[in-house]
Amino acid sequence: MTARAIQARAGRERMQVTPEGIALPAVLASRGTRFGALLIDLVIMGVAMGVTSVVLLIAAAGLNTATGGKIDNPDPQLKIALEFVIILWIAAMFLFRYGYFLFFELGPRGATPGKRMTGIRIAARDGGRLSAEMVLARNLLRDIELFMPIGLVFSAGETSGVTWLAAMGWFMVFALFPFFNKDRLRAGDLIAGTWVVEAPRRRLEAALSTTPTARAGTSSATGAAYRFGDAELSVYGEYELQTLERVLRENRREALVSVHEAICRKIGWNPGAGDERAFLEAYYTQLRARLEAGMRMGKRKADKFT
Amino acid sequence: MTPNPAVSGQAAIEAAALRSDRFRQEREADWQRLEEIVARMERGRLRKLSDEDLVALPVLYRTVASSLSVARETSLDAATLAYLEGLVQRAWYLVYGPRVTLWGWLARFFGGEWSRAVRAIWPELLVAFALMAAGTVVGWQLCAADPDWYYSLVPGGFQDERVPGASREVLSSTLFGNAGQDGLSVFAASLFSHNAGVAIMCFALGFAFGVPPLLLLIQNTATLGAMLWLFNGQGLLIDFIAWLSIHGTTELFAILLAGGAGLHVGRSMAFPGDRTVVEAAARAGQRAAVVMAGVVVMLVIAGMLEGLGRQLIDHTQGRFVVGGSMLAIWLSYFFAFRRAPQGGEA
């Protein structure tokens, strides 16, 4: 994460306290992510609706040919069957429109496929449980926020200027709603008491202080001993430690070399070449040991300036 | 302090140099077990989860949560902290999430929650009822004063023979003798879809401080008033009401509830009391959403009554019996049938 990304994240962080008294940061999803998720969902819905329509159309056509193709003057049984197909279609369209979001957001992940793909989910704003009523409320509002105005915009067409403008205005009011409140709520979130947060799924990374170099402070490749004194470790704080951690985990050659150089310059060592990773592992482990010891005594050092 | 044997690989065998990493090594088996259970639950494979895992979930959750709070005070390993935060959050959604199945929710919904939500918005229901009555009277009066109003009040779409000046025979034929009419079930299905849309709009627009539902209620019932006036002119008022009531008692009741729900949201936002507007809106919205779920159910029933009942029952008394008993059923379900709430407040 760059400094800018960290800053952008800080503005979206909301603290929630679990019943165990643990503060958990909930990071609000960015508007761009939510828009992307919505687009994915709309595409999925559109495809599902299209496929259902085509299947039912084929079924209807099949019924028609099976009975001799008398669509203009069908016999009563065919008529009932065709009617049934039409009713099925109406019901299916209704279910897709109102049921898609409901069904997925009621599930254990609180997210539609689009939200899952973009790594976000819905959650209760008060930190309590997400109830079925909340999901219902936020998705009933979706109808006037999205489907109705879009339908109006299309049905009005650009020929009837006033209606078209009114529909666009209606649509824009709700589309811009998340830009005018600090929690980025859309109207449905406001009514339902929900918000949309990031739901990252992180892997447990390896522990960094288990390598032989980290444990012994001696490079296993060259045998060089990396022992740092108080003066050499006290120049950095937690922020630098975490930068170093990231560099070690990403393990990119150029980054290792340049960080190695920077640290050597700072602590007045003569930077050698070829053994950067071992040096950094040793420095990381010893710096972290020092900072964590301070932490246990209640002394923290945020960065090199403190 | 022996390393946990469940953790495989080099990391477990080699004890870490740092105390905070050793802390992690001792516990990461629990973390990973929780992660695995959570991942399986998120995929919706609840049935594949053993009882043992289900029982372990809350315990593991607390273990990992306490790991997180300890790690926050003792460890500077950013990746591990982020992992724990994410894991605790995911587990928390599951442990404190709604562990109710769809069927469980439906049982609770029909077994009292719906009627309780309806009773909770009774002031708005009274207002909505008054508005609907007023709308009907206004529609009637306008047409009585000037029949031209009829054309602006009643949308022309499914409206051919029923116009001012139509003879008694024509009007009567729209009420009776349609038993063999074609496509009625399709008509009922599309009408349901349309009505549900209107009802949802009625609720959703309550968001604008309740003004649009007011207008929608009045406008829709003014249409009703105009048609009542028309049929009254040919002495068919009672027959028309009967024709309407077979599904109308259910449908109008549903629209009444939807309008009431919209008003409830609007009123809570305009007069939030000692809560903030946002809090008040959320509380009202959740309550109104329960009412709305029921409205959709009622509209389905109304659609079936309209498609089937109207065709099968072709005389006024029968229609009154069906419509009246539906009304009685709804009223007693909402207001007479009170069961003590089970468990806590949802």
Query: Which structural category fits the helices and strands of chain B?
Result: mainly alpha
Q: Residue share in helices of chain A?
A: 55-70%
| Number of distinct helices of chain B | 13
Broad structural category of chain A:
mainly alpha
Beta-strand residue percentage of chain A: 5-15%
Uncertain residue segments of chain A: none
- Overall pLDDT score of chain B: 79
Q: What fraction of residues of chain B sit in β-strands?
A: under 5%
Number of strands of chain A: 4
Lateral arrangement of strands in the main beta sheet of chain A:
1-2
Tag the structure with descriptive keywords.
heterodimer; A: 306 residues; mainly alpha; two-stranded antiparallel ribbon; 4 strands; B: 346 residues; 13 helices; 0% strand; elongated; disordered C terminus
Describe this structure in words.
The complex is a heterodimer of chains A (306) and B (346). Chain A is mainly alpha-helical and 306 residues long. Chain A folds into two domains: 9-198, no CATH class; 208-296, no CATH class. Chain A has helices at 3-10, 31-66, 76-105, 113-118, 132-156, 161-175, 187-192, 212-216, 230-233, 238-250, 253-267, 276-296, and strands at 13-17, 23-27, 120-124, 194-198. The radius of gyration of chain A is 30 Å and the shape is elongated. The mean pLDDT of chain A is 83. With 346 residues, chain B is mainly alpha-helical. At the A-B interface, strand 2, helix 3, helix 5, helix 7 and helix 8 of A face helix 2, helix 3, helix 4, helix 9 and helix 12 of B.
Topology:
The complex is a heterodimer of chains A (306) and B (346).
Chain A: H1 3-10, E1 13-17, E2 23-27, H2 31-66, H3 76-105, H4 113-118, E3 120-124, H5 132-156, H6 161-175, H7 187-192, E4 194-198, H8 212-216, H9 230-233, H10 238-250, H11 253-267, H12 276-296
Helix pairs in contact in A: 2-3, 3-5, 5-6, 10-12, 11-12
Chain B: H1 10-13, H2 19-42, H3 51-74, H4 78-95, H5 102-120, H6 122-145, H7 149-153, H8 168-175, H9 184-204, H10 211-233, H11 237-270, H12 277-312, H13 316-336
